[in-house]
Amino acid sequence: MNGRWRALARLFVLQATWNFERMQGVGMGYASLPLLEDLAQRSPERHTEAVARSTEFFNCHPYLAGIALGATVRAEFDGVPGAQIQRLRTALCGPLGALGDRLFWTGVVPSVMAATCLAMTQGAGLPAVVLLLQA
Fold this sequence. Notes:
Shape: elongated
Number of domains: 1
Structural class: mainly alpha
Distance between the termini: 27 Å
Radius of gyration: 19 Å
Number of strands: 0
Number of helices: 7
Largest sheet: none
Protein backbone atom coordinates (compact mmCIF):
# COMPACT_ATOMS: atom_id res chain seq x y z
CA MET A 1 0.00 0.00 0.00
CA ASN A 2 1.53 3.30 -1.03
CA GLY A 3 1.68 6.47 1.08
CA ARG A 4 -1.48 8.00 -0.35
CA TRP A 5 -3.63 5.02 0.59
CA ARG A 6 -2.09 4.80 4.05
CA ALA A 7 -2.72 8.52 4.61
CA LEU A 8 -6.33 8.09 3.48
CA ALA A 9 -6.80 5.16 5.86
CA ARG A 10 -5.33 7.21 8.70
CA LEU A 11 -7.74 10.08 7.98
CA PHE A 12 -10.58 7.75 8.99
CA VAL A 13 -9.34 7.86 12.59
CA LEU A 14 -8.87 11.64 12.60
CA GLN A 15 -11.65 12.23 15.11
CA ALA A 16 -10.31 9.52 17.43
CA THR A 17 -7.22 11.64 18.10
CA TRP A 18 -9.17 14.80 18.91
CA ASN A 19 -8.18 16.67 22.08
CA PHE A 20 -8.87 20.10 23.56
CA GLU A 21 -5.36 21.45 23.10
CA ARG A 22 -4.72 20.65 19.44
CA MET A 23 -8.19 19.64 18.24
CA GLN A 24 -7.43 17.45 15.17
CA GLY A 25 -3.75 18.34 14.98
CA VAL A 26 -2.44 15.03 16.27
CA GLY A 27 -4.62 13.14 13.78
CA MET A 28 -3.39 15.34 10.93
CA GLY A 29 0.18 14.63 11.97
CA TYR A 30 -0.53 10.89 12.10
CA ALA A 31 -2.13 10.99 8.64
CA SER A 32 0.70 13.05 7.15
CA LEU A 33 3.50 10.66 8.16
CA PRO A 34 3.16 8.30 5.15
CA LEU A 35 3.12 11.28 2.78
CA LEU A 36 6.22 12.83 4.36
CA GLU A 37 8.37 9.68 4.13
CA ASP A 38 10.05 10.83 0.91
CA LEU A 39 10.91 14.14 2.54
CA ALA A 40 12.81 12.23 5.26
CA GLN A 41 15.16 10.82 2.62
CA ARG A 42 15.69 14.20 0.91
CA SER A 43 16.07 16.40 3.99
CA PRO A 44 15.91 14.79 7.44
CA GLU A 45 15.93 18.16 9.24
CA ARG A 46 13.08 19.53 7.11
CA HIS A 47 11.17 16.28 7.71
CA THR A 48 11.44 16.66 11.49
CA GLU A 49 10.16 20.24 11.28
CA ALA A 50 7.33 19.20 8.95
CA VAL A 51 6.16 16.43 11.28
CA ALA A 52 6.20 18.81 14.24
CA ARG A 53 4.25 21.42 12.24
CA SER A 54 1.67 18.88 11.11
CA THR A 55 0.73 18.03 14.71
CA GLU A 56 0.02 21.63 15.72
CA PHE A 57 -3.50 23.00 16.28
CA PHE A 58 -5.93 22.26 13.45
CA ASN A 59 -9.71 22.00 13.33
CA CYS A 60 -12.08 21.62 10.36
CA HIS A 61 -14.81 19.27 9.22
CA PRO A 62 -13.31 15.76 9.27
CA TYR A 63 -14.61 14.89 5.80
CA LEU A 64 -12.66 17.77 4.25
CA ALA A 65 -9.48 17.40 6.31
CA GLY A 66 -7.82 15.56 3.42
CA ILE A 67 -7.83 18.75 1.36
CA ALA A 68 -5.86 20.57 4.05
CA LEU A 69 -3.57 17.58 4.49
CA GLY A 70 -2.74 17.50 0.79
CA ALA A 71 -2.17 21.24 0.61
CA THR A 72 0.18 21.34 3.58
CA VAL A 73 2.18 18.28 2.55
CA ARG A 74 2.57 19.71 -0.94
CA ALA A 75 3.78 22.98 0.57
CA GLU A 76 6.34 21.05 2.61
CA PHE A 77 7.67 19.34 -0.52
CA ASP A 78 7.78 22.63 -2.42
CA GLY A 79 10.02 24.14 0.26
CA VAL A 80 7.57 26.79 1.45
CA PRO A 81 8.79 28.48 4.66
CA GLY A 82 7.38 27.01 7.87
CA ALA A 83 5.65 30.21 8.99
CA GLN A 84 3.78 30.37 5.70
CA ILE A 85 2.67 26.74 6.05
CA GLN A 86 1.34 27.51 9.53
CA ARG A 87 -0.63 30.43 8.09
CA LEU A 88 -2.01 28.14 5.39
CA ARG A 89 -3.21 25.62 7.99
CA THR A 90 -4.80 28.39 10.03
CA ALA A 91 -6.45 29.88 6.96
CA LEU A 92 -7.93 26.51 5.92
CA CYS A 93 -9.58 25.77 9.29
CA GLY A 94 -12.54 28.14 9.03
CA PRO A 95 -13.56 27.68 5.39
CA LEU A 96 -13.22 23.89 5.43
CA GLY A 97 -15.12 23.69 8.70
CA ALA A 98 -17.97 25.87 7.48
CA LEU A 99 -18.16 24.24 4.06
CA GLY A 100 -18.09 20.74 5.50
CA ASP A 101 -20.80 21.47 8.05
CA ARG A 102 -23.02 23.07 5.46
CA LEU A 103 -22.42 20.29 2.93
CA PHE A 104 -23.03 17.53 5.45
CA TRP A 105 -25.87 18.88 7.60
CA THR A 106 -27.81 20.67 4.85
CA GLY A 107 -26.94 18.31 2.00
CA VAL A 108 -26.10 14.74 2.87
CA VAL A 109 -28.25 14.22 5.97
CA PRO A 110 -31.50 15.58 4.45
CA SER A 111 -30.87 13.59 1.26
CA VAL A 112 -30.39 10.35 3.18
CA MET A 113 -33.47 11.06 5.29
CA ALA A 114 -35.56 11.76 2.18
CA ALA A 115 -34.33 8.57 0.50
CA THR A 116 -35.21 6.57 3.63
CA CYS A 117 -38.70 8.07 3.84
CA LEU A 118 -39.24 7.37 0.15
CA ALA A 119 -38.03 3.79 0.57
CA MET A 120 -40.34 3.27 3.53
CA THR A 121 -43.35 4.53 1.57
CA GLN A 122 -42.48 2.00 -1.12
CA GLY A 123 -42.56 -0.85 1.40
CA ALA A 124 -38.87 -1.20 2.35
CA GLY A 125 -39.74 -1.11 6.05
CA LEU A 126 -37.15 -1.93 8.69
CA PRO A 127 -34.19 -2.54 6.30
CA ALA A 128 -34.46 1.08 5.12
CA VAL A 129 -34.25 2.32 8.70
CA VAL A 130 -31.27 0.07 9.39
CA LEU A 131 -29.47 1.44 6.30
CA LEU A 132 -30.23 4.99 7.47
CA LEU A 133 -28.70 4.33 10.86
CA GLN A 134 -25.56 2.86 9.28
CA ALA A 135 -25.02 5.83 6.97
